[in-house]
Amino acid sequence: MLHALYLLGIAAFAAGLAVVTVIGARAAIDAQVTPVAVLILAVLTGVTGEVVRDVLCGEFPPLLLREEVYATAALAGAAAYLGLHRAGAPDTVAIAVSAALPFALRMAAIFRDLHLPRLRRPSG
What we know:
Elements: H1 2-30, H2 35-56, H3 71-86, H4 91-111
Helix pairs in contact: 1-2, 1-3, 1-4, 2-3, 3-4
């Protein structure tokens, strides 16, 4: 039972990242900002929930600032939404694809133990 709740929690956070990223991208597009600003605002919107969770749980530094695939997944979803929107795709298709992408990336990163490369300080 505990394992099932753990999996449900992971899926809920991944879904939250996906949905909030798309909401951020859509709001930025509606505000008629530049494409780069759309990507930045969508990623910031998407990762805010994760940062708040980490702060409330006493996790420092937040997972976002480590090698977790989180902001990268949000960026992929934001870029997908921006690209599909600019290509004239129906909004429901753009939303579905753009939310599925960060969700799938985040879940794959968790279950396949995928991480971003870690910067190493030069010795000396």
